[in-house]
Every structure is written in structure tokens, then in C-alpha cells.
Amino acid sequence: MLDAIIVGAGQAGLTMGYYLKQEGYNFLLLEAGKRIGDSWRNRYDSLQLFTPREYSSLPGMIVKGEGNGFPCKDEMATYLEEYARYFTLPVQLQTEVFKIKKEKDIFELHTPTETLQSKKVVIATGGFQQPYIPSFSQHLSSHVFQIHSSQYKSPSQIPKGKVLVVGGGNSGMQIAVELAKTHEVTMSISHPLTFLPLHLFRKSIFNWLEKLGLLYAEV
Question: Rounded to an integer, what distance in angstroms lies between the CA atom of residue 111 and that of residue 100?
């Protein structure tokens, strides 16, 4: 019987594992991927975080490299893998949980190969696992090439011609900027966006937010 099972070994799951280990709990992390960090490795080639390494680190271990620089996706994937190894966190890979059932005070987690029991369960799979595709996409001509950001890798995938990028989030913005070098790009955004500079007076905007007490929240 485990004290806790964490579903997902990304940033949130590993952080939870770090703190549970500090307190001496008997726990297990379940990760669907073949390797820790695969959710980063599988993203588009040019993905770069907009948070500096200094503010992209998990507790107890910094991201290697220049603190004010911005890590790329593969750098983050490697960091997460090294983080789990450094703290010897118990991670079970290639384990997808398809059902969770509670019997009295015990949770049962069903995987394709076994059923695990735990007193507590932490869901750390993230909020963006299911791609959102606007319904109007179904009514476009079959001659219109469509691709979701989760399948996008590089501009070489995109046919010549005009491109419409739907969505103004981090991925949409980065992909639009990249495609603008080789294509005529238009963006479709549902509401006005407000932008903050990444640096202010030669310091990261996150540094200023931290000094103003706006970056972290007490729990």
C-alpha cells in the first residue's frame, strides 16, 4: 500500500515527488511516456521558453546554463530527466492510467498491466493534453492544409502560400514568428492581447515581479 501515487512525471509531478520524498512518504510516479521529458521533446523544433533558466528550475536543482538565458525544449526535457535521477525519484515509465476508483478510503489506479492501491492520488498530467481545434475547421475545404501545434515541427511541413495561425498563446506566437520568415502569415486572435517586455532595465521581468511580490503565492 502506497502513501501516494502521482500521475504524471512532468514539472508538477516531479516537484510533488521531491517534497514527498523530503517528508519520507512511500510514493510512486506514473508516467505514460517512454522517457521523462517526452512531452517537451515532442514539441516543435524551435520551442523556447520565455521564462529564464533561473525561473524555470524546480526546487533543489537549478537548470544548467546562463541564468538569464531562455532554455529550449530539449534542454528542459534533459533537465527533468536528470532531476528525477539526481533525487532518485521512483518513476514508472510507459504506464498509462485509464481508470481511478475509490473504495472506502483507498484509491485503485488501473493501468493496462496492473492495479495499484494508494491512500492519496495526485493528478499532475497538465491542462493541455487534449488539443483544442475550433469547430469551423471541419467546414474548410479539403484543399486547405490544417495542422495543430501539437503536430507542428518546423516550417518545412507547411505548403507554400499564405498561412493563418489561430490562437495568440505562447505556441501560436512563436510559430507565427517562425513561419513569417518563409510565409505570409496572418493571426486570428479572439481578444486583444497585452504584452510585457521580457527585460526591463537589463533585468528579467520575472526578477521585477519577484521583487514586487507578484511572482509567488503562499499556500
Answer: 9
Cα 16–chain centre separation: 15
Give the total number of structural domains in the chain.
2
Task: Tell me whether strands 184-188 and 2-7 are parallel, antiparallel or unpaired.
Answer: unpaired
Q: What would the pLDDT profile of 2-24 be if each residue is shown by its tens digit?
A: 999 999 999 999 999 999 999 99
Task: Print the SS3 string covering 179-202.
Answer: HCCCCEEEEECCCCCCCCCCEECC
| C-beta separation of 6 from 17 below 8 A | yes
Examine the domain organization and report whether 8 and 66 are in the same domain: yes
* Residues 108 and 141 grouped into a single domain: no
Residues 112, 141: one domain? no
pTM: 0.91
Tell me which residue range forms the domain holding 143.
135-188
Longest dimension (CA), the chain: 59
Asked whether residue 115 falls in the same domain as residue 140, the answer is no
- For residue 209, give the 3-state DSSP assignment: helix
- Give the whole-angstrom CA distance, residue 78 versus residue 105: 37
